[in-house]
What does this fold into?
Amino acid sequence: MARKEKENKNSKELTLKRRMLAHYSPKDPVAEQYRTIRTNIQFSGVDQDIKSLLLTSSGTAEGKSTTASNLAAVYAQQGLKVLLVDADLRKPTAHYTFRLENHSGLTNVLTRQSSLGQAVQETEVSNLYVLTSGPIPPNPSELLASYQMAELLSEMKQHFDMVIFDTPPILAVTDAQILANQVDASILVVSSGKTDKEAALKAKELLFYAKSKLLGAVLNNRKAEGGNYYYYYYGKNKY
It folds into this structure.
């Protein structure tokens, strides 16, 4: 039994390190791609300072949450004070990725049961903080569309240099569209060989209708030479 528990623990540690390559393996080619994404975002913000960013995808299991977490890590590595917000109030994962408690989070702050300062948690990544989802509510869309959310975003930008939102797939629910209208910019995450082209185009359309500044797309799970998988940033003209 003890051996099995140890194997399970080692397996979880390995999964965590794979999800957070930018932190645990900063010299890995994939980690370098995250830094490339960060650089491209910074160049995209020449006319407007980008301090809040939303990541979404057309469907599930396309690497959206992993991309958001690693992107937050590489921004923090620049010395910026970064807040990663788990705004997927239906299937949150940030507390698993960073091994945090999820008793209090975004939903508690939006319902005024907690302050932002009380709910934000530090991570082992220097300069990176996480606001977990908190208890899953019966009305996620209404909470994200509330006046409290707009006020909270303003407060976040006062205390952090960069705020990154991990949101649900945009074709499944309206949550991402609601937030896309409030943040400075958005990025669409697509998975090589999995994301349907029509679905990606529909997702892009929805972000356009939400009047979001779509910077481009992150293509992940593309197999490179040698069998390694990497993440790559495409400019918006590619779509």
Observations:
- The longest helix spans residues 2-19.
- DSSP finds eleven helices and eight strands in the chain.
- The two ends are 52 Å apart (CA to CA).
- The CA atoms of residues 106 and 133 lie 5 Å apart.
